[in-house]
Amino acid sequence: MLKNHLKIAWRNLIKDKTSSLINLLGLTVGITVCIVILIFVQYESTFDAYHENSDRTFRVVQHNQLPNQVLYWNTTAYPLAEALRNDFPEIDKVTQVAGPFTRTFQIELALDKKVLFEEPDVMFVDAFYSQTFDVEWLAGNETTALTGMNSIVLTERLAQRYFGFDASSYQSAIGQPILLQGKDPLTVTGVVKNPRGNSDHQYGALVPYEFFKKNNPYFSGNWSGNYQGTTYLALNAIDQKTGVESKIANWKSKYLNPQDNQRISYYLQPITEIHNETLYGPSPGGYIMPKGILKMAAVVAFFILFIALINFVNLVTARSHARSKEVGVRKVMGSSRMQLIAQFVWENCLIILLAAILSIALTQGLLEVLNNNLTIIDLNLKFKGIHLLFVALLIVLATVVAAIYPAMVLSGYQPIRALKNKAQNTQNLTGELRKTLVTFQFVLVQLFVIAAIILAFQMDYFSTSELGFNRQAVVITENPNQEKATVFREKLLTEVDVSKVSFGSGPPMAVNGIQLGTNYRLPEQAETEALDAEMKIGDIHYLDFFGLELLAGRNFTKNKETFDEFIVNETLLKSYGWTPSEALGKTIQINEGQATIVGVVRDFHNNSLQYEISPCIILNWTYFMQNGFIQLRNTNPKSLENIKDTWQATYTNSIYKRQFFDDAIAKEYAVERLTFAGFGTFSVLSISLGCLGLFGLMSFIVAQKRKEIGIRKVLGASVLENIVFFSKKYIRLVALSFLIATPLVYYGMDQWLETFTYRIQPSIWMFLFGGVVTFLIALATCSFQSIKAARANPIHALKEE
Amino acid sequence: MLVELNNIFKWVQQGGQRIFLLKDINLKVEEGEFISIMGPSGSGKSTLLNVMGMLDTFDEGEYDFLDEPVHKLKEKHRANLYKQYIGFVFQAYHLIDELTVYENLEMPLLYKKISGSERKSLVADMLDRFNIVGKKDLFPTQLSGGQQQLVGVARALIGKPKLILADEPTGNLNSKQGEDIMKLFQKLNNEGVTIIQVTHSEKNAEYGKRIINLLDGRMV
Fold first, then answer.
1. Which of A54, A82, A175, B41 is least buried, going by the fewest C-beta atoms within 10 A?
2. How far apart are CA B30 and CA A542, in angstroms?
């Protein structure tokens, strides 16, 4: 019987090639997209879950209570780890990590053949690190590799790149010398596997924490500062979390000074939640994928699948008319309803299965494309055995939703009526259902289209809105040696293409995650009243270079070892209620020292547009001038090449890096760009799927109504009238779906835009534009089929039967 | 007694009025009979045939099939009854286009849960008997109307029914093809199969041993 079912299913598939192809194509695309998104969601929501102890491992986070706000930090004072280790027997392991930082390695391949590498991901970890987290050792002694002072553990990737070792020869990497930062000799003590893609711990090399402490004695002994130490701990059991947290709350006074003790509180954040929680931000080197985005992605995945399934249901039920005779014959020949249902379910399952198989192949290709081409975030998605389970679940879902219902409809036909080709009672019902489904489908389509349009405008706003400073054709380079800055500047200014040069801690808008923080207060105020501010160091050309406008006062005259002048922004003045001219001459205390305000600049966006402008202080210091800024007259490759040559001639023994300021700003909107790219793709996809379905549906309806068209034509209806007659029913549904989608998408996008401090106001024509585009595409699709039918010779249509 | 209809009425409501499709039909059919039902269009011939075939219901009266009271049986039971004892032949043949001649013949057996080997021999017998072995792998659309109806009759016979109901079996055929089918019916009847056919043609009706005339749902 099964063989018979499959046989006839296959013959039907072949016989009706167009609709089979539409069904297969639509379902394949729907299932593929759904699986790819689900794999992405699974990947992004299981970061660091692979560690053996992941369920009882936590990151220690810090809440910092300021007078007007709470700051959430994912780093803690460096001595915390050791103190916890000594005082808490219930904590299994405590480990602390500094970095990843950028460091240079010098390798001596042969006598007089030295090669310099720069690695952005050198992490300093203590000996407990590999006991807390899963690190796979390929060579070296796991317990002692990170205890020595001058050791270095390389990942496979670096061992291969530096020495050309492979799996068979990692052992010989042990003992190789590496010169760190051109001065500290290290010895390779181990080789480990590259960290997995779905981990926030992305390191290229591990260097002992002791080494870091030795070189940074001030930081590593300081309890009050917040110096980028990330503390992780593994409890003996997961249920100890609240107990340990409250014990820490009482215990911390042992080490913290009274003010800090009041200000600072520690909490434990499960490591599996780090990647999806925006509050504390990513650990250095990682990125955050907010839970909300993942939930939305999952919803989108099922929306796309539903659009495809609706096509399927509609096509199958529409086709049922053509099958009614068969139902009649089979019933008369003795088939029971259950047997017919089984037959049609099998038939539909065949298409679903085919689509699923095609999807698996397609998914693998698509993941490859995503891994290679998605530059916004670094993905390493793979199709694994577990994902077959996804596919299986989708098949079941598709069968339940899309195969069983049409089978019930078909099998319900009355045999005599079916044989006489009379309209079935169920026909009306399926007609109504079809209308509902098409409407629902186009509601989803319009959601995507309108959302994509609004997103596009917000993205455009990000990239074109006035930020309060100059950012065109600005190149940022590093300034590894402050003493050579003046020479570099003089040399550059002789270039034709360079108009201005300046040095500073960073550009006006914080990019690449670098922002210097400090606290500020009036000298007479208590430390507890200090507020949070951003600190920038700029040379005397900084204001002019970026076009920051002075509202009162003057620019710096000289940068000094001990700074004595501040230029502040308007936002900072608000905390004291000063006008710009009142502020001049006032003295302010920050963590690093005291100075007088000599100038006030107009507010500029010192944070990317998701966030508000924050208080900002510019110092006339000579420290932290890590970056050089170069204004180009034109950005041809030659002028960039000249800068590179000048740079390398000035700063010998360093590695040249440059970045356009515009590009750096664009990176600040990575998640938004990803969302936009997603919605852009999905809107195109959903509109294609929706129209594919409409196309299939129209071809059936037109086929069914050939006779009616014939009669209308004989009675004098024009081609156009016939087209209108057929298209209007479904076009009306598209219009209706627009009315339903508009408030939904308005609400959703309003919520999304709320998350940005600076945003566009969605206007009515953005919605109308989306509606009209969808409408026109749908209209074109409908007309295509009906034109064909309307132009056909009526004689042929009427002669039948 | 194979079929016994007592005071059968069937009607539809139209605009508050009862339109009678069958009016007080009384009919007894013995095994081995060959009956032709005649009458003008709309006289209720097909309806009567469908009622006897249990494909259609009636509103009043009693129907005994092999002494089973059909009017009291549940749908499922009724289906089992006709599955077992009745074979249908249609004017438009109603073969399934996607199945070959062989598969079309096999189909009713599938629904009777007959084993594979037995199905094979039954289909082979039938192909043999109707002399269509050479056509077994063709699809219905590749056959002439007469050949299609031949397959239709073969399909009706394959389940070894006691009764064949044929609704204008020659309506779509030319006179030569129609004559062949009628001769076949006569032969089958001689072999003991009970046949009831609906027909327009006086000539074809003559093949029956008894003729029933219907007019406006009544036997005349």
1. B41
2. 114
